[in-house]
Amino acid sequence: MDSKQKTEKIKIKIKDYFHLIFRSAKDNHFRIQQCHQNPDGEVRCDIYFDSYIALKKYQKKVRRVTLSLSSAISVIVISTLIIQLILPVFKSQAATFNWQQSSWTGGAFPNDYVAHQTTPVSNWDKYASKDEDITADGDGVTLSSEAVSWTQTTDTDFNAGTVSQTAMSGSGAEGFVQLDTFVTNYSVTQTDDTSTVSSSGQQGGWGYGTFSNTRQNGVVGNGAGIKLSTAAGKSTLYLGGSMLGTNILRSSVDSMCSSSVNRPNCDTGSVKGFISTDVNDEIQDMQTIDVDSDGVTGRFDSNSPIYKYSKSSGTSTLFTNTWADMLDGTIPSYINTGLDYFSGYWWSNSNYGGSYNLTYHCPTSNGMSGYIGYQTSDWIQRSSRGCTFSQPILCICSDVSYNLSGTYTSYVSSGNTGGRTWNSFAWNETSNGGDITVKVKSGSSAVTPPSFAADTCDGSTSPIALNSTCASSSDQYLWYQATLTGPGTATPTLDQINVDVDVSNYQTTGNYTSSIYDTLGNISFGNLAYNANTTPVGSSVSVKARTSDNLDMSGATDWASCEAVSSGADISANSCVTDGQRYVQYQATLTSSTDQTQTPTLNDISVQFERISNFSGLLVTQSLVGSWYNASDETNAFTNIIWEEEENLPSGTDVKFQAQTAPTNAGNDAPETGSVTGFVGPDGTGSSYFSSSDAVNCSSTVNAGTRTVDCFIPAEINIGDGTDDQWMQYKIILETDNGGQSATVTRAELQYVVNVAPLVGSVIASQDASGIVNVSYDVADSDTSAQTISVLADLGATLEEDFIASDSTAITVSNTASLPSSGTIQIEKEQIEYTGKSGNDLIGITRGANSTRTVNHLSGEAIWFKGVSVTGDVGAGIDNGSGKTVSWTIKTDLPNVYYESARIMISANDGNAANQVGTGESNVAGFPIDTKNPTVNSFSVDSSTANANKTNDDTEDLIISTTEDNQSGYQMRFSNNGSDWKSWEDYAVSKTQWNILDATYGGTAGDGSKTVYAQFRDANGNISITSSDAIVYDTDSPGVPSGVKAQDASNDNITPIENRIFVSWEVNTDLNNDFA
């Protein structure tokens, strides 16, 4: 650069800073716009600013620096040089910027901010905060999930299922599933003389019981019973030696035994001897003992058993356990009827080892004798001498006495079963003047009876009904204690007992099908684990699982096609389980071993699945707040929120966005939190949200399964008005009412525009005599070189409602009369198209036309109509500059309009996404706009003769009546043929002496009808319709009739008199179209 150029550069700088210091910001703004667009390329200024606001801030700093300098000249020169060093001027143009975020791995850092860059910021991975149940990572933002278990372990849990040969048992947490039982009813009988234990399906005897002053009755087989026992020592043995002699008769034996000397132990009652009558049977002698320990062994133990020996078969049969029982007459029925006995009584001997009294078989007429001394248990064969021997005779006392009371304690068994129910205890008895009472109580031991002191079922009358208190179903043994009470001389007999019991055993196999569990939605299934008891060898428990999306499990795989699941296995891979299906169910199959007295059990089971965290069936709403973003320019306008989500959101889910803005703080390094707008949606409130379903504010595109949602921020709400919006922050809100689904946001983006609206000034407008509205204006824009210009007119119509941004059907205005049937209007800085009118409504509207922003408008705002028939510096691509002109043939767009205080507005749109419209208006007072033609009320040719329709004079007056809003400059003209017109002249209510024959204006000579034409024009070139009126021009005199005669034809003879004249004439055929 040579010295001349440097000098010129300094001059330019000095001039620039002179204007900065001494001229207004507005003047500087226009100057800078104009000098930078000098078409000849000459540099006229050397400064440039991002925006009008930036210029004002810079100007303020410059002036602050210059205050300390002493003179204007030094101020200009020195500050020009210094300011270039210390206050650099940044140059930029209007632009749309985006900040996008696709990773959130950095975590929550509420005090970390994102700074504006000229290229989209895409590497930011932090955020300000998030709710607990949000997952934010490199894959996006989604609702978090958690592992959930469906567990069944209580009786209540299991009771909700269905059973097939299975049953629930236990209570509370001890509940479990087992095989069901089947019941068999048994009558357990105890009646014979054996020691066989009575049990289900097996008859038993009395022998294993416990006797106390009782004993069996000595009968063999089913006739056996329990009776009171007799007192010991009620028998005697006579040792007769040879005193009997030979061939002793029965009478001799009885006589001998009856002798008191031979019955020392039988003081009372009858004494009987024994005689056998059957040659094939023998009775074994009873062992002699010393009953009373007096050294005499001739007496016998009354508890000794009795046997009969059959010589023919070589076998012996027990008659009774106690020989003394033969004294009461109950034993003989068990003995061979061929045996003879006295008075129906029976007695016998013992087979104990030691010294025996042996019994011989004697002839029927003889008694039986025996002798002492044999130490063998052999049966004594009949000897040839038989009864001839002189041997001891057995004598039996008949006066035996019984214990007054005694007990018999025993039990019956249900057998080893899965369970039992003891129903009743019954018995048969022979009272013999006595009584029997019974106490019943179950026990778990077959050795030790339970205590009968309490909790028994008692009775003296059969049967006794049993209950769970005295007869527990868990006890295998039912004990009883029979108390026999007699008079002493006789005894009652317990002949038989019968216990009614229902015995339960377990089924061999069965199924338990659980209730259907609603997971409330799940992401995937996990492990199925269960605890089962398979202690019985050979038993098993297996479990299957299946899923469905239907509450009734319709569509689920049939159980028969499902595979069993091992405890702890992941069921996701199971052919009957589908991850994400809402409902799950399991089926357990229990199989027993061969031992049906035990059952396998399912004690508890759990199914794991993954579900949205803390989901309980109600709507879950969680959010993430992005980091504050510094747009670095307070003139920024926040225009769009953009994000990516699934092409089709999962069922029950939603993605919503809100945003908030704030001005910068004093240090320009953080948002001014005290002035934050708060998070809002498209209507500017916290209760509204941006979403893909918002067709008014949002649009979307789809690519490869991803939906990109682009939501426009209305300019009328706080976050979109371009005021105090340097800092921006988004908020992602995720919702779901499905526990198995969450939407995912994979990208979030904020779009904003750094732009200064165009400046429009010096708008001057008027309507000329041809009706054209001529407009001149200046336009400047610090960051856009060309504009789209519209010219609009205010004809007095105003908005008659508060018109919000979401209204898109009709606009109510004060008066639509001046507006055409369709067109474009502008309210403030928004242009709106309409297609029709209905009353005072403009209908068929399209908001935000011609790249303007849709905003709210208050009632009373002016309605500006956009011109169409325009030429000049109007439309797209109009460069900034001054002296711009537009010509508007307004009558074409707005016919038949008159408004005396109209205004014209120039609207400049720089095409940016925000702050794109600047306007300038003509004089506030306005000027008349007239596109309305004058109205002709009446126009006529006034005949100068008595006949209004004829004249014989060629000059006539014209009578005029019209209506015109603007009388200033109002004119009229006339013609005799409607083509050749006299020049315009000032309007008057009449025109005198108009020559109806004047050929200059189209007149014709000669008589005939003459028509005069009239037009009226106002000052704006509006011409009325052509009016006309005709008159007959006639210069010939009318013809006179001849032979006229008049004759009196009156009649005075009547009253009143009738006066008449009769006139007659000859017609003249030459009338010249007249009649006189």
What key attributes describe this structure?
Jelly Rolls, 7 helices, 9-stranded antiparallel sheet, 7-stranded mixed sheet, mainly beta, 39% strand, 1076 residues
Describe this entry's structure for a reader:
Keywords: Membrane, Transmembrane, Transmembrane helix. By secondary structure, this protein is mainly beta. The chain has 8 domains: 3-86, no CATH class; 95-102 and 123-144 and 617-740; 149-180 and 507-609, Jelly Rolls (Sandwich); 184-211 and 403-505, Jelly Rolls; 232-400, no CATH class; 759-930, no CATH class; 935-1032, Immunoglobulin-like; 1036-1076, no CATH class. It contains 7 helices and 71 strands. Strands 48, 50, 51, 54, 55, 57, 59, 60 and 61 form a 9-stranded antiparallel beta sheet that branches. Strands 12, 13, 15, 16, 24, 27 and 29 form a 7-stranded mixed beta sheet that branches. A hairpin with a 2-residue loop joins strand 50 (823-827) and strand 51. Helix 2 (25-36) crosses helix 3 (52-66). The longest helix has 20 residues, at 3-22. It is elongated, with a radius of gyration of 68 Å. The two termini are 109 Å apart.
Helical stretch tally: 7
Report low-confidence residues grouped into runs of 5 or more: 36-43, 67-92, 232-251, 262-294, 296-303, 326-399
Total domains, how many? 8
What's the alpha carbon Rg, rounded to whole Å? 68 Å
Principal-axis shape equals elongated
The proportion of residues in beta strands is 35-45%
Summarize the amount of helix as a percent range.
Answer: under 10%
Helix-strand makeup class: mainly beta
State the major sheet.
9 strands, antiparallel
Number of strands: 71
Mean pLDDT: 80
First and last CA, distance: 109 Å
Transmembrane segments: 65-87
Protein name: Ig domain-containing protein group 2 domain-containing protein
Keywords: Membrane, Transmembrane, Transmembrane helix
